[in-house]
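Quick one: structure for this chain?
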Amino acid sequence: MTAVRVLAAVAAFACTAQSPEPRGPFLDPGAPQAASPQPLSGDQIFARAKAVFRSYPRPPFVAYTLVRRDLHNGAPDFENSYTLKLWCRTADRSALARKAWKGKAYGQLENLTVMFDKAVDPGPPTADMFEKRLFGASGARLDGAPAPAASPAASASGAASGAAAAPGDTPAPLPEIGRVGARDGDYRVVRVARDGELLHLWLEPKSDAERNRVDEMWVDASTYDLRRARVRDHLYFGITGQSIEDEFDVRFTPGPAGLPLITSIHGQTKYGQYETDYTFRDVTFPADLPAWYFEPKQYGAHRSDAPP
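Got it. Here's what it folds into:
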């Protein structure tokens, strides 16, 4: 082989080695590529979780058993431990309640409006944790109007500030989805961290802290379904209305069609002197319930018709 042929072969090999891999007949190697979606801010994650939570249809009625167990200084408090069976109309949370023993209801009929932060047991399991009327703050009205939405300027400011993970957190990248608004008139997210398969959000109320009482929440990192929340509540003593601060750890599991249902609540006062565990069992969704269940003045005429 002559020197000229050797040089020609070497040049051809070098050109082949330096040529880029084919990128397909429809792709232009020089064309700009689409940018990846930006990770969501904390406020956007909260907005998506709230929208997902409220996207599930709420059944008009729910029947359930509530088991309450109290501890005082670590010892069982039998006086304040009991089991109730409740038949609740979810539109206004009016409920017929009866004491229960070994799965059977007994005793007098009582009408309750189940809610949080009031001298009544929390519930129902289908409760909307973002509904301000759910929390019975001083002066709260059951027919109270919802809070006005935040102004566009305030919303833009909140979205711009976002929420970064605190020092020491090592969160995995947050999920990326399409464009999501972050306007919420009740809460702002001040911190976000990855917690296994969940996203942990720390919240601050923008206004009306007595009615916006969710401090933390955990949502599924893929579906944004609510799985856990920490809620400021109170432990009430007897008929005096006196109370002390109580923190609720609320746990959710998927119900029919994925609707998050409260399955348990652990309450503990600030210094751990009082603890209360609520367990929601035997949850069913009747298609209808008699109207008199929610008319306490008619209870006397229906004692023989009382549900077991």
